[in-house]
What we know:
Two copies of one chain form a homodimer. By secondary structure, chain A is an alpha/beta fold. Chain A folds into two domains: 8-137, Cobalt-precorrin-4 Transmethylase, domain 1 (3-Layer(aba) Sandwich), CATH 3.40.1010; 143-254, Tetrapyrrole methylase, C-terminal domain (Methyltransferase, Cobalt-precorrin-4 Transmethylase, Domain 2), CATH 3.30.950.10. Chain A is 33% helix and 18% strand. The first copy, chain A, has helices spanning 27-30, 33-41, 50-63, 98-101, 122-130, 143-151, 168-185, 198-208, 233-238; strands at residues 8-10, 44-47, 74-77, 106-109, 135-137, 158-160, 188-193, 214-219, 227-232, 249-254. In chain A, strands 3-2-4-1-5 form a five-stranded parallel sheet, sandwiched between helices. In chain A, helix 2 (33-41) crosses helix 3 (50-63) and helix 7 crosses helix 8. The longest helix of chain A is centred in the C-terminal third of the chain and has 18 residues, at 168-185.
Amino acid sequence: xxxxxxxxxxxxNTLDFGIEGAQAAPLSDVLPLGVLQRAxxxxxxxxxxxxxxxxxxxxxDALVPLAAPLQQVSIVELPRPAKGAKAAPPxxxxxxxxxxxxxxxxxLISEAGLPAVADPGAALVQAAHAAGIPVRAxxxxxxxxxxxxxxxxxxxxxxxxxxxxxxxxxxxARIRELEAASRRLGQTQLMIETxxxxxxxxxxxxxxxxxxxxxxxxxxxxxxxGFTRSDSVEGWxxxxxxxxxxxxxxxxxxxx
Amino acid sequence: xxxxxxxxxxxxNTLDFGIEGAQAAPLSDVLPLGVLQRAxxxxxxxxxxxxxxxxxxxxxDALVPLAAPLQQVSIVELPRPAKGAKAAPPxxxxxxxxxxxxxxxxxLISEAGLPAVADPGAALVQAAHAAGIPVRAxxxxxxxxxxxxxxxxxxxxxxxxxxxxxxxxxxxARIRELEAASRRLGQTQLMIETxxxxxxxxxxxxxxxxxxxxxxxxxxxxxxxGFTRSDSVEGWxxxxxxxxxxxxxxxxxxxx
Lengths: 256, 256
């Protein structure tokens, strides 16, 4: 490395991703102006998806003109981990950091929300720290934390556990295990699901959780139609709700 | 309740709180314009602290004129739970929701970051759900999630555990317990500390954690001097760092 490295900026994206046909919230409703200005300056990016990054930069350009034409902005995609390839050696990510080592600021962005949180990118951040590149996360929306705040459940102790098993028996066992941990630790449990399985996950939660466990579902938080419903499991059972199969949702529960 | 209730908006605050003498980041760097516009419209608030809420609304007013003079904006403080009074009956929060039940939108705000996340407010949100008041969380900065993203640790599975015990023996035992959970679950553990105890917590973590556990400290993320350092415990021991005693920090670790 010659000279001072650039900074790796973790740039938040909107929460629109995967919400087809919905009215997207205006960019200025979800991202601070300072973040848009920083994004407009960056000419080197590492992205979960180059296409959605270009689409975002076009929306940024309409509010804060990009410092360089979009065609000249370099966008390199993160390597996708093969599913179930946990034993495979992790990819060498240092080449992706070359612009920062050469002194340029570098952006890291995922398809929705904050990069490296419930999303790829953490390995690149780790590589940046190891290479002495300053890392700076920029504020923006996180579906997880918006859902937690809107749930009314315990925000002083919580765990995000990712996806639950798809197979019914394993999923039921996992739900009971998480409910026991929630009761023991007073800890809110947060999870996400592929939208077309929203109804299946809700059904499994209502079948497995105790009646006095509180369950909150936040759906499509980024859109005008977004909502949070938070009630006891018994309340959900008395007043059933259908969840949209094409909108991302965050599920949270807290045992009594 | 007569007619349609208003909405309870969970309004994010800046992360400046408790950072005396530091250069505050401009409001537009941390809060989306849409959030400032919503805050400027709200004439009924429930706040962790009325004084800091008024200070924020003055800063909002300089960017987006308030819909009503600040003197006419109603700000009611959340009841403060007495320390160690876990057995005390929770306060009846429904009177605080009266404006929403009368059809007015109501804002909930804490001293920093998102209300009801690592901050008071969850009980009011729960009361709103019980009363049929729609709840909407607005996007903004969260020191916890910014620290997690910048740590490069596992963002697919993490727990926020709040404060650790102050007493040395209990704190050491808690750190070892959390490290065991981190190893077993592959789960990043996030915690916070009162700033003047930053150095003591760092010392305890370095004394208790295994050398190959990765430890990240994010300090004063909202200010230009903010930084994240992420390294193995062994690396921290080889290259010690002094943490400021007057800046809030988020600590995160992940066992190997």
